[in-house]
Design a protein that fits this description.
330 residues; alpha/beta; Rossmann fold; 2 domains; 43% helix
Length: 330
């Protein structure tokens, strides 16, 4: 048996017990040095408290924006969204990409009428002619808004009666095609996710997102990581540079086997075959013929949804595509 550490021979030393502290009684550090002893002391203390060096590190925005804090910002950018997605039980997503400029039919027709009115006032103005022509082409693409909206409804309906977070629509949170997909899910009462990103000019998330599942990222790379991490399918509508960036990121990750295969659906075969000549890349030897099987084309929401379900039912496909997130980070 070990000796009682409080015993010394026959003597027993009492263990000190601190008295209960009067929490109302001020302690020396509770007040700054009085001006009665040093007239300049209060002003010196004020300057100390206001100095940037005195700010606690996690409460110092200027510190967090320094170039050498980029690693910390990357960690925070990833960790905040990841924590909230996990807390809400988000496990699988259908990710929808597409142009911010493709609006619903009513809005597209208003813009077309306005553009044609300006052209009527200045028929010889080349800018007015170009604006009217583009407005007409965008108006013709408003059908894609309805396709994305229908797809959002289908995903929302798929979880009705089950776990509402088992399969959730995820977009870049913007207007256009992204708004349409979020809107479709919203109309079924389902949650949907938006991953916005900081830009040099103000922007707003679309109004159909679940407030607790709408995020804003500092880094595009971390945002794209979250796009692929839980994706059960990536559905890509007509779009510009941003959409192309997201599409090629996904294709490269699957092609290089950095992530497990995942359905990649290009909506609007005519648009995509004009925008990207994949066959030319095969002919030039810069991609393999098998790389054409990394995606397929679709035109309607039903076709997209049926294709995704068939893909996951195929016995040769992995049931749960999981992203290797460490390889996606910059």
């Amino acid at each position: 048996m070990s000796a009682d550490p409080r015993s010394t021979g026959s003597r027993t030393r009492a263990v000190p017990c601190p008295p209960a502290r009067d929490r109302m009684r001020p302690l020396p550090w509770h007040h700054p040095k009085s001006g009665e002893d040093d007239a300049d002391a209060p002003e010196r203390v004020r300057r100390l408290l206001e100095s940037p060096s005195y700010r606690q590190a996690d409460e110092d925005p200027a510190l967090l924006q320094l170039p050498e804090m980029r690693g910390v910002r990357l960690d925070l950018d990833y960790a905040k969204a990841e924590r909230l997605l996990e807390r809400h039980g988000i496990r699988r997503t259908i990710v929808v990409f597409g142009s911010t400029r493709i609006a619903e039919s009513a809005a597209a027709q208003r813009r077309l009428r306005d553009a044609r009115a300006r052209l009527a006032e200045a028929p010889d103005d080349p800018d007015a002619r170009r604006e009217a022509a583009i407005a007409g082409r965008i108006a013709a693409k408003s059908t894609y808004y309805e396709v994305a909206r229908d797809l959002g409804r289908m995903v929302g309906e798929a979880c009705r009666g089950g776990d509402p977070h088992d399969l959730v629509v995820m977009t870049g949170a913007g207007p256009g095609i992204m708004e349409a997909a979020n809107r479709g899910a919203f109309e079924t009462g389902a949650d949907s996710i938006g991953l916005n990103v900081k830009l040099p000019h103000p922007q707003y998330p679309n109004p159909y997102l679940t407030p607790d599942l709408c995020f804003r990222f500092h880094y595009f790379a971390v945002r794209k990581l979250h796009f692929v991490q839980r994706a059960r399918a990536l559905v890509v509508f007509p779009g510009g540079y941003g959409t192309l960036d997201e599409l090629f990121e996904a294709l490269a990750l699957v092609q290089t086997r950095t992530i497990a295969p995942v359905p990649i659906v290009l909506v609007g075969e005519h648009y995509w075959k004009r925008a990207i000549d994949f066959e030319f890349l095969v002919d030039e030897g810069t991609i393999d013929p098998e790389d054409l099987a990394l995606f397929w084309y679709a035109e309607t929401a039903q076709e997209i949804w049926d294709g995704i379900r068939a893909w996951h039912a195929h016995p040769d496909r992995p049931p749960e595509p999981i992203a290797n997130i460490s390889s996606v980070a910059p």
